[in-house]
Amino acid sequence: MAIAQYWTASDLAQFFPEPVPGTPLITATSYPVNMNGLATYIYLVGGQLNAAIQKAGYEIPVPSWDPVASAAIGGYAYVQEVARWGVMAAVMEQVYVGPNDEGKRWRTLFDKAIDDIRNGNQQIPDAPIDFDQQGRLLPSWFPNPDPQIRSQDLDPVTDTVNPLW
User: Fold this and answer.
1) Using one digit for the tens of pLDDT, what is the confidence trace for 135-158?
2) How many domains does the chain have?
3) Is the peptide bond before 19 cis (omega within 30 degrees of 0)?
4) Strand partners, 71
């Protein structure tokens, strides 16, 4: 499965502060991070974010639109925002080497959000839940998931762990 990129480099570049008014921080030739570097950070952060989302029991990538309900997925905006925090952290840490409160601020936001998603403390509203091939919830969806439980250990009727199996 391809890594979802919740942003394009050109869309995300506008969120970075301008070092000089009217001069963007990231351009095709900027140093140390240019548009290609920004696209790489988007790809890497998307991978981290999708791993946490999948661990929490959601399908990845989180879609922006639900074709059945003909409505936007509410959680997509949150996922997109978390991706922005991660990319902002990576770029700001690269651009401003040394004691960088700006990069640390974004890193703190991103790391907490990833942990909250991964540990089930942050739901992603309207995001599709990940089911196995038999249509049963995967174990990662349960509160306090037990890594020892596999989908084949679940009772096919109740989607609960059958202690007799």
Assistant:
1) 555 555 444 445 454 555 555 555
2) 2
3) no
4) 66
Tell me which residue range forms the domain holding 156. Answer: 136-165
* Residue bearing the bigger pLDDT, 110 or 129: 110
144 shares a domain with 117: no
Q: What is the chain written as a DSSP string?
A: -PPP-SS-HHHHHTTSPPSBTTB-S--SS-SS--HHHHHHHHHHHHHHHHHHHHHTTB-SSPPSEETTTTEE-HHHHHHHHHHHHHHHHHHHHHHS-SS-HHHHHHHHHHHHHHHHHHTTSS--TTPPBPB-TTSPBPGGGSSS--TT--GGGB-TTT-SB-TT-
Q: Count Cβ atoms within 10 A of the Cβ of residue 12 and give its class: 0-12 exposed, 13-18 middle, 19 or more buried.
A: buried
Cα 151 from Cα 139, distance rounded (Å): 6
* Contact (Cβ atoms closer than 8 angstroms) between residue 53 and residue 60: yes
Q: pTM for the complete prediction?
A: 0.75
Per-residue pLDDT of 102-115, as tens digits, reads: 888 999 999 999 99
In a domain, 55, yes or no: yes
